[in-house]
Specification:
The chain is mainly beta and about 375 residues long. The chain has 2 helices and 28 strands. Strands 6, 7, 8, 9, 10, 11, 12 and 13 form an 8-stranded antiparallel sheet that branches. A hairpin with a 4-residue loop joins strand 7 (about 120-125) and strand 8. The protein is globular and about 55 Å long.
Amino acid sequence: MRGLGKTRRTSNKVFTRRLLAVGVCGAAVVAALTGPAQADGAVDKGSSGAKPPHWELKDSGTDARFRGLAAVSRSTAWLAGSKGTVLRTTDGGAKWRNVSPPGAADLEFRDVEAFDGRRAVVLAIGEGEASRILRTEDGGATWTESFRNTDAKAFYDCVTFFDTRHGLAMSDPVDGKFRILSTGDGGRSWKVLPSTGMPPAQEGEAGFAASGQCLVSSGPRDVWLATGGAARARVLHSSDRGRTWTATDTPVPAGDPARGVFALAFRDRTHGIAVGGDYRADQASPKAAAVSGNAGRTWTTAGTPPPAYRSGVTWLPHSRTSALAVGPTGTDLTRDGGRTWRTLDTGSYDTVDCTPDLACWAAGEKGRVARLEP
């Protein structure tokens, strides 16, 4: 959805012009994070002794908790959170415009997918009619409700898009199977897909609406669904836009309603990272990350996982090996594809997202939102 266009040939001069176009600051952040690892595990500060890349807090002007984040570019991002709050910035976070849908104060927005600075889809979670999907085409000036759940047994958690037209939303199991919604018109209308291709859910299994990353896609047809709350934390994969699925166990701890895989990130249809653990602050979260190199058919525990529960994860732009994971106790960085992690920051964030023009954003509790800066 936010990929860069294809070119036949890229010379050094063209590449240099592109970096200047997207911002030298963004390039510096990625270069510092993805550069050679230091012996002590610290980010390379360079010969100048400058401090490493860090989250720079932006004033959102609200105390809402933002678990929904759609980073469009270094200048443009959308936030969706508690109390029906939706914010949008087009100047890199210097100012945030409140574009919340009218009458939505009682809704809990947990996911937002943005196509650009004007078009976006937000998901409200909850039982029965609390689960809704709304769409805007004018930067949030007006909203249209395109889906309202009428099944008391359904509870929608996450939404994802393959492109500007095709997308899916997922609900916790209904009658023993996860329920999938599908759209082919950019979120203007939705239909429930048949459940015949969905494997049975485990007892107590569900998704976590913690970061908008329990349902993620890569490419035109592949999509993955993260689960927890049951005996085993699983990842379900579909290669046909949600019509048929296969389920795979992960080594992320489960066996409790508070444990499981909370977020997924795939940099292509093969290489993925899963993060999670136990969201309770007084509980440890060993093995809080796992990696897959075969589209999620198998998962391997990270050799050095994040030190605590993590709710969000994203690959760094244009990197094959580096990613960020966030949670209430900090941000962690991997530079070897998710096998080892080290803490970069101790601030609280729930979700994280990066853009093709070399920008990374994070958001969380008490109106916290930040952009990674050199």
